[in-house]
Structure formats: C-alpha cells, structure tokens
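An instance as discussed:

___
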Amino acid sequence: MDLYELLTSRRSVRHFENRPVEDELLNELLDAAANAPSGGNIQPISIVVVREADRRATLAEIVGDQPWVRNAPVSLVFCLDFHRVGRWASLSGVEFRGHEAMMFFLIGYADLMCAAQTVTILAEDRGLGSVYVGTVIARTQPAARLLELPEGVLPLMVLSLGYPASRPSGIPKLPRDVISHDERYRVSADEDLVAAFEAKYGPIDDNVEKYFERAYVEVVEADRQHDDDWTARAQHRMEKLNIRNSAQFLFELRYPQDMMVELNEELRGDFGRAGFRFPGFSSGEEPADNEGNAAR
C-alpha cells in the first residue's frame, strides 16, 4: 500500500487482538512523535504510555467507559507540557508564561496533534490500528491524578493502539471538493451543502444499526465488546427526540448543544486547576482588535 492509499483508507480501529505491541515498535512510534513538527521547535508535549491492565481499565472508565481503551494493549496519553518548558526557562533565568497565553496554548495543542497524527500514520504503516479518544479533555483532573501529572501538564488526547482484530468499512468522509477552496472561500448553495452531508451519512431508516455503522460506529462496537445495550439506548433517545436527519442526530443527541456550551465553565475550572489561566478571555469585556481598540 502506498502512502496516499494508506492516508485515504485509514479508519479508526476499536477492536484489537489480545497481543502486545512490541517494545521496539513502540519506541519507533515515540521516536516519530519526538520528531513531529513543532511551533518554534519548543516541543511542549509529553506522552504517557499506559500498558498496565488496571491502569488501562481506570483510564477507560475516566474517558466514558470506552471498552477499546480498556482492551487495547497500549494507550498513549498526549499532554500539553508547560511544566517542563517552564522549569527549563526558570533554570535558564527567564520567565515563561505559556500557561497564561492563549497563543502558546493553541500552538502547543497543534504540536500535540501533529505528534499524535504522526504516530497514527506510522502505526498504520506498521500494521497497527488506532483510535483517538478526545473525551479526556473533559476529564483532565481524574486523568491527571491517575497519571500523576504535575501542575502545568494537561492531558488533551488519548490514542489507543494495537493489532486490529477487525477494521471498519463504510465509514464515510466528505469528498475533496467539499472541503477545499481555490484561492478564496467558496460558499456552497444550500442544496449542495445538504446533499454533501446526505451523501456522507445516508438516510436514517428503519435499520438503525446500519445507520450507526456509518454515523455512530462507537455504539455498535461498544455493544460488541461490552454488551451494554448502547445501540438500543441510542435508538430510544432518537425516538424520544424525534430525530429525523443526521444534523439533528449530531447536534441534539450525540453532542447536545446546551451540554457542550455548559462544558465551558467546567473546562475553564479544570484547566485553571492544572495551572492554565488566560487573562482577558471570557472576562465579559469586549475583545480588542490588533491595535488594542475594542471591537465593534
């Protein structure tokens, strides 16, 4: 398989063989992460390797009782690490205020995801499968306690890895011409926009499991591994909310908008307890433009 085919065919794997990832291969993945792109080459990231069964089980519970985190032989927890950078700066006689600067935070998060995706692609090339688990963002405090993270270290992504027992098929993506724009942004006609997403997800019909295989494969895979009636419960919620299309499914059931907005305060508190505070953000003041004038 050439690189283009690997990149365009790769899909998340949630069903893994009961087989460890060899130390040599794991070290290759970590070497790749260490050489990923980084803004200013500061590399404000740390990766906690979780392989012990009890710790995997606890991590799985923390991130929403996701069985693939428990069953994968290894999970890599990618952390934004201003603890190490700040200590280095202090020992070198200079102040580092990354934990107060949103720009440093965003650059660091981009670094973290570059490293994670580099690992993902190399893992795929080496015959492994992987799945991202982003719900750790909403559970930073229990994850930090489990992993004994010092202040200034924030867990922002889990990548669970292993040899695939099965690989999903039929998980759709938007095509190139929907996400790419020549020279300037192109606003699609309403009918084209709706058609693109309908082609991606397909209709919601009586065969709910078939729809979930395309739009919510997590519940199908969770039932297979955990036998916890996730599919039935999701279907019941769909009926209760009168879900008729994929946008309603995503933004009323899977990611309820009120809940997502309410998470702002929880995330702000959790990030603050980890030492990350951004003066001027969400202060109730009008944002300023680049010249310091209040925006109008």
